[in-house]
Inverse folding.
């Protein structure tokens, strides 16, 4: 573990899983609202089902939780490292949306779901990491 401070693992896991569930629901709601507003959820001619947003959000939120746990264990300033790393990863996650074979409104909706998930998960986990 880091010599300076360690994050209690159980609260980090609990809050991370809760944040993942909230983010999954939120991205599904954003996708459903976009679809209801007439924005296509088709990428490359294939529709993305609304529940797929929840599934992928949950999976990548758990990856973020694992990253937070690893940084809490092995990095001197885990909060700073986590926030910087996840901001870069969030920015990189937008690249496939930008280059996707989809309409501009669809691309913007996809990017919005990434940003909504990040806005929920990153602060929730960062608050529980030592500075």
């Amino acid at each position: 573990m880091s010599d300076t401070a360690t994050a209690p693992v159980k609260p980090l896991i609990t809050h991370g899983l809760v944040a993942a569930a909230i983010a999954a629901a939120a991205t599904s709601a954003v996708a459903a609202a976009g679809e209801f507003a007439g924005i296509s959820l088709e990428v490359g001619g294939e529709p993305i089902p609304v529940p797929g947003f929840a599934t992928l959000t949950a999976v990548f939120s758990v990856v973020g939780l694992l990253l937070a746990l690893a940084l809490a264990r092995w990095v001197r300033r885990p909060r700073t490292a986590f926030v910087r790393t996840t901001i870069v990863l969030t920015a990189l996650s937008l690249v496939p949306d930008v280059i996707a074979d989809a309409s501009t409104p669809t691309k913007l909706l996809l990017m919005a779901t990434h940003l909504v998930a990040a806005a929920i998960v990153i602060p929730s986990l960062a608050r529980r990491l030592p500075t």
Notes: The longest helix spans residues 9-36. The mean pLDDT is 94. The beta strands are 42-43, 46-47. Helices lie at 9-36, 50-74, 78-99, 104-126.
